[in-house]
Design goal:
By secondary structure, this protein is α/β, with parallel strands linked by helices. It contains 9 helices and 10 strands.
Length: 323
Amino acid sequence: MQRNPEELYELGPAAPGIANAPMLHYLEGFIDAGNAGRLLAEHVLNSFPHETVARFDTDRLIDYRSRRPLMTYDNSRWESYEVPELALHLLQDTAGRPFLLLTGPEPDHEWTLFTEAMLGLCARLETGPAISFLGIPAGMPHTRPLGVIAHATREGLVAGHQRLPSRIQVPGSAPALLELRFGEAGRDALGFAVQVPHYLAQTLYPPAALALLDSVIKTTGLEIPDAELREAADRINEAIERQVGESAEVAELVRALEQQYDTVAEAIQAQDAFSGDADLGAGLLAEGETMPTADEIAAQFERFLAENQGRIDPPGSPGSPER
């Protein structure tokens, strides 16, 4: 029996004037080092008023036993249930330019139907390029610029961006499949993966979200404020520097990563000094055998960050103090 993709979502009121509007998307559940993608998605939603254009049927798409929704029990009764939401939101940047953001849990089921539904929905709304973003762990220190690797459905979309010049096989994800299917349908789609120091991969790392935002702005021309993210990034960088200053062991490990990073950078620069495609990321993606004492430095930082969670989390994040 042929399934109808439109059965997967409920369309809201007509949203005029969004033809060619870029569609950002972040689906939680796949790899996201430093929670970079989640922080950026939350920042965007918190920065602008938004309305729901379409809401997907999470009862069909989500495995609740794998990712159990939170419920609140108070005294003698169940008080509330947090219904998972996978929705497409319409926003306007500070200049009044419309754009869309798809966010929520990554579907566990019916990926084929979900991508068909998204293709149909974007064709119906006449949206512009689809843009995904997330964080990946890398064998690099926090004291060096964060690289952002780009991939896209056609070459012109990644011009001027860092790329990974390798052929690899990785576990799939719904956002990656969405980009693939968009390309097959002749639609523009691209994604950004920011490289997060591997010892900070399990923390909230706002500098990574800030790097992703810069890439999104560069690509789309959207005007999205970054003050909140910059404030949070400065705060966590200061906390990390305090830890480095207080621990000779951590400082030594960071210096080892700096030396590794600089050696790779110098080798690439010497190999292709005049190319705009020099790719530091290819030599720094996290591989266990190339990371000097990764477990030790991760343990040091994770312990410190756990002890200071309330002081370094970005505004509005779980565990951050009230403002």
